[in-house]
């Protein structure tokens, strides 16, 4: 697991338009990098829509929002189109980046344990240092909480 003060792991992942993005692409900006289990599922949709609704405020604070899941680029395209999402969605089909960020964990739902992506959020400063790390995020009102956090740091 990653902690505040750790250097953010580098990544190179394709977005919904199949263009590779790296952490270096966001140099000079604060990156809100959130990991979520699956496109177009209830909690993930709430979270993506909430970040999209606040996008102007995030951009005004110098922040870029990036969502990462194990879904492929085509799934991300459909998710983005269906809800008019404005956030950058990255496809980590091999879950390598998810592993580097420590979000692949055992989860339990209805008494069944399985390994999967735990909803998690990291705030990475312009120098690539983690300034906020939360594992096991509840999706409702999370985007507002993150916006409030970065607004109070500025």
List keywords for this structure.
Glutaredoxin, two-stranded antiparallel sheet, 154 residues, 30% helix, globular, 30% strand, 5-stranded mixed beta sheet, alpha/beta
What would you note in describing this structure?
The protein is an alpha/beta fold. The chain has a single domain, classed as Glutaredoxin. Helix content is 30%, strand content 30%. A five-stranded mixed β-sheet has the order 5-4-3-8-9. The protein has a two-stranded antiparallel sheet with strand order 1-2. The protein has a two-stranded antiparallel ribbon with strand order 6-7. The longest helix is centred in the N-terminal third of the chain and has 12 residues. The protein is globular, with a radius of gyration of 14 Å. The chain starts with 11 loop residues before the first strand and ends with a helix. The mean pLDDT is 95.
Entry summary:
This protein is of the alpha/beta class and 154 residues long. The protein has one domain: Glutaredoxin, CATH 3.40.30.
């Amino acid at each position: 697991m990653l902690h505040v003060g750790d250097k953010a792991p580098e990544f190179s992942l394709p977005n919904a338009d199949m263009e590779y993005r790296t952490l270096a692409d966001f140099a000079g900006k604060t990156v809100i990098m959130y990991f979520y289990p699956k496109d177009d599922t209830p909690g993930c949709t709430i979270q993506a829509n909430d970040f999209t609704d606040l996008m102007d405020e995030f951009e005004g604070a110098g922040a870029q929002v990036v969502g990462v899941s194990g879904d492929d680029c085509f799934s991300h395209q459909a998710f983005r189109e269906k809800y008019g999402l404005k956030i950058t969605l990255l496809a980590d089909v091999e879950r390598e980046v998810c592993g580097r960020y420590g979000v692949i964990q055992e989860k339990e739902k209805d008494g069944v344990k399985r390994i999967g992506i735990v909803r998690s959020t990291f705030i990475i400063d312009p120098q690539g240092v983690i300034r906020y790390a939360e594992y096991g995020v509840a999706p409702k009102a999370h985007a507002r909480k993150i916006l409030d956090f970065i607004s109070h740091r500025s």
